[in-house]
Design a protein that fits this description.
This protein has 2 domains: 166 residues, Alpha-Beta Plaits (2-Layer Sandwich), CATH 3.30.70.1290; 61 residues. The chain has a 4-stranded antiparallel sheet. The protein has a two-stranded antiparallel sheet with strand order 5-6. It has 11 helices and 6 strands. It starts with 12 loop residues before the first strand and ends with a helix. The chain is elongated, with a radius of gyration of 21 Å. α1 packs antiparallel against α2 and α6 crosses α7. It is an alpha+beta fold and 247 residues long.
Amino acid sequence: MGRQARKLSHTGLYHIFFHGINRQPLFDGDSDFVYFLQSLQQLKSDMAFELYAYCLMNKHVHLLIKEDQKGDISLAMKRLLTKYAMYFNRKYERKGALVANRFKSVPVEVNENFLPLICYIHQNPLKAGVVNQLEDYQYSSYLDYVQGGNLTDTAFSLNLVGKEEWLRLHQIIIEDYFDVAGKIRLSEEKMRHRILQHTNGCEPREIAVWPKQERDACIRQLKEVEGFSIRQIERMTGISRGVIAKS
């Protein structure tokens, strides 16, 4: 079976993620991180895309990029990863692929998930226990936002809420994570809290014993208003997928 075509973003925004083959390190020292960022800076200048966030971890990388022309993202990433792999293989006298499979690119909307996504990207080293404070990590765009820098395009993100609120949001640890479909996955506690708003405080599992008409009306709200998937509703309520699908 051939590779599935990438989903295109009508906003031009993509959350890009890739990791080392067999989960091996992509970076073996500070000079590798620096070389990658210098290569990214040069490519950004050549292709005129915008970079809203990045985080380079030892074994994986996150980028939030807005392409200038449709299709630029594939060309940009091919150039960047090919150049870096050649550098890395030459330096460490190795052969073969460096990045596992191909990079993942997820279309991004400028909605309520946009700023949490940036926080999620920046909080990677904090959650991994690499640093105790975001400003202590050198290889993410957080410092560009806080101290200034010429690699990250910070104005768009900061103008959405202002710098003070932007900084405050970064102090809230994003317990949820972003799946390969580009949607934020809520923790069970946050899903429960949202469901309680539709049940007048009744626990999710209680919906299963409601009269059919009330039960189905609530399920429709969870699907249409909250955007929960059938699988999510099944997991939280214990109601079978068939019933949820027909509601």
